[in-house]
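Hello Y.,

Per our agreement to keep a running log of every chain we model this quarter, I'm adding this entry. I've kept the format consistent with earlier entries: sequence first, then predicted structure.
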Amino acid sequence: MTLLSGTFARGGAAAAVSDDAWFRALLAVEAALARAAARTGLVPTTAADAVTAACAHPERLDLATVVARAADAGNPVPPLVRVLQDAVGARDAVAVHVGATSQDVLDTALLLMARNAVAAVDADLTAAAETVAGLARTHRDDVLAGRTLLQQALPTTFGLKAAGWLAGLDGARLRLAEVVAELPVQYGGAVGTLAASGGAGVALRAALAEELQLTSTAVPWFTCRLPVADLAGALGAAAGVVATVAVDVVLLAQTEVAEVAEVAEGRGGSSAMPHKRNPVAAVSARACARRAPGLVATLLAAMEQEHERAAGAWHSEWPALTELLTTVGSAASWLAESLRGLRPDPARMAATASAAAEGPLAGALAEALAPTLGRGAAHDAAAAAVREARDSGRPLAEVVAARTDVDVRAVLAAGTPDVGEAGAQVDAALAEHARLTEGVQ
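Predicted structure for the entry above:
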């Protein structure tokens, strides 16, 4: 726990890529490799059982030595292998690290951790999506001022805005699920030839994939880093979706707008201004999501790798992917919390949209008066009606409704918010959410 981890290491993803999780993943790969080697007849089953038993109790292993010597080896696998060999003894050491190289174990462990971390991210994205689906359902037809380029535009509905959020969250979940389903095992030996696998390397790779419930590959992916790049891309996209929802919440919660509020006991205060209620969860979600693009860029830049095994680019992936999983997981966790406490204000939304409609309504009144008064006088009469409404504190529609010199119903129709097919699109998004939820969960 660090000073900033409450903000930037929130949720289950951070725990899934902790130092303890790294050790568990590395040991899980070594144990599965021993069992796969026994299944393919390369080592005795008793030796594989001994390795599996040793890996199941990391607290009994000399992991402090692994930490101390990891930098000397360039990665933690060589010292881990020696510690495991010492733990099982000379006879059973034959089942430790069979035919493998460090990258086999580390790549596979990294993807195992990523799979666990993505499961935690998905849980928070699911929670956020369910809350948003409820908002879309409840506020399906509540009129909201649409905004483009940060300026008021035409009317929309809060239901449609929430449905847009929902489509993004569902899409992010689906993309992550597709990537995770294809995460591959890594096994190739020193240069990918499987020369140290006793002629059973291809079979051993398939058995290892089965043990770990990963996919197998025709060849090692030592320098073809598509699995990491695909994962990075899907995580970066998820962060972008989270950031978009979070910034909408932040903007709608501004004092001058106040169309939503983020309500959470004991949160949101200011050190200097006791009257403030900041949307801290949405702000934090946005902050975490903003870290993702740089980490994605690091992972994509690391795709350029030389010959059979890379010198440096591969190594740069470990902390970058670990941090990316942590920050996207934190963003998703914060967003789920923000949305749980979100309180929309339909009356405020309607008032803002109504005020925005006064322009079209005044124009309709001028058009209706023009045939009898002439365009100039009609314009002046409409302007006078606007002043009367503002001076009396009444809606312009109420002032227009009191007139007897125009077809009031026709004029007021021009000031009625036209939200087009917003409701039908909300229904479609909710139906799609129901289908995707059944397929993804």
